[in-house]
Design brief:
363 residues; Rossmann fold; 2 domains; 12 helices
């Protein structure tokens, strides 16, 4: 393609802030530019974000306040491009109720009805127990999600159960809702080596809270895994927790800290397994699980779900150490292969093509 097409992408934050949704949006923008010569103009919907006015050649605008007028003014500066909203309520308002955002989009649509709004629902609304604020805020958040679902021309989400909820919220207006599990935010190797050609290393990757959960809640499982797989070293990747143990059993933990995506990718490509402690119903939303799958690691999760969720099944796409032994290298490789194959259907390049088509651009 020779003509440059532009999409306006609304996000809550972008790098240098550590933000999963921001990383997702930036990775998608890179791939859309690479594959389809599509340019992205970011609008950061958080006045407290500190960043540059351009990231990797992508122009960045920012709301100076969370107001309807400010948002409409920014969106009105481009009267032709489609708008891609990356929605997670808590990213745009402390209580997860960004009325200014939904009201602003509604006014913008009334002014420019021919413009398209595509919403990627990373979250829909929170729920909780009566003594938690999320319990009382849930109806307001649900109301905003309902309005947004009905306002959007097309909807994407990262989980099939979310797609089912959004179809109901849209009152049947949106029946073709794309469900795309998240992709790896640290890249994807061109070739995946078999486990037999790799180091006897196990990766623990992710944010501080998620890695602490592994060490504090799953230490016995992790020790069992190290014994079963003859792990020689655990590689801890991410912001230092300050509470990471030195050893699991007799296996040393090497704290590598924060590393560039390329370095993390190279480390994963040479290890045999990746460990996490994650709700199995939400593995399709986990960028940690996605990274393990993309790099052909044996994914190991401390929790299991007996049902099939987002086409992910325990014992087939990940190993649950408390439920079964795993000594057979062929079975280990089969699980790693299944996970990698599952991932390939929604890899970054696959999602780039899907979003390009969703944005209704003719190649």
């Amino acid at each position: 393609m020779s003509d440059l097409i532009t999409v306006i992408s609304i996000v809550s934050r972008l790098p240098p802030a550590i933000d999963g949704v921001g990383d997702y949006a930036l990775n998608l923008a890179r791939q859309l530019r690479k594959d389809f010569n599509m340019q992205t103009h970011f609008i950061v919907g958080n006045p407290e974000w500190n960043g540059e006015s351009e990231i990797e050649g992508f122009p960045v605008s920012q709301v100076i306040e969370n107001s309807v007028n400010n948002l409409v003014e920014l969106l009105s500066s481009d009267r032709f491009s489609s708008v891609l909203l990356h929605y997670v309520g808590y990213g745009y308002a402390k209580r997860g109720c960004p009325f200014w955002l939904v009201d602003g989009l509604q006014r913008w649509k009334s002014l420019y009805p021919q413009r398209s709004l595509i919403t990627m629902f990373h979250e829909i609304y929170a729920s909780g127990l009566p003594w938690q604020s999320s319990f009382w805020l849930s109806p307001l958040q649900k109301n905003l999600a309902t309005r947004l679902a009905r306002l959007s021309d097309r909807i994407v989400t990262s989980k099939q159960s979310y797609a089912d909820i959004l179809e109901k919220l849209s009152n049947g207006k949106r029946t073709q809702i794309n469900s795309l599990p998240v992709f790896s935010n640290i890249g994807e190797p061109e070739q995946v080596r078999p486990l037999s050609d790799r180091q006897k290393q196990l990766v623990v990757f992710g944010g501080v809270a998620k890695r602490l959960r592994v060490y504090q809640k799953s230490q016995a499982s992790l020790e069992y895994v190290c014994q079963s797989l003859d792990i020689q070293e655990i590689l801890d990747l991410g912001t230092p927790t300050g509470k990471t143990p030195k050893l699991i059993g007799n296996v040393p933990i090497l704290e590598l800290g924060q590393q560039p995506a390329e370095k993390i990718s190279a480390i994963m490509a040479d290890a045999i397994a990746g460990f996490l402690n994650y709700n199995p119903d939400f593995l399709g939303k986990s960028t940690i699980f996605a990274a393990y799958c993309a790099h052909g690691l044996l994914p190991i999760n401390a929790q299991e779900n007996n049902s099939l969720t987002d086409e992910i099944k325990a014992g087939e796409h990940y190993w649950v150490p408390n439920k079964s032994e795993l000594k057979d290298v062929k079975i280990m490789q089969a699980i790693a292969n299944n996970a990698c194959y599952w991932y390939s259907d929604h890899s970054l390049s696959a999602q780039s093509k899907a979003f390009f088509n969703i944005l209704n651009v003719v190649i």
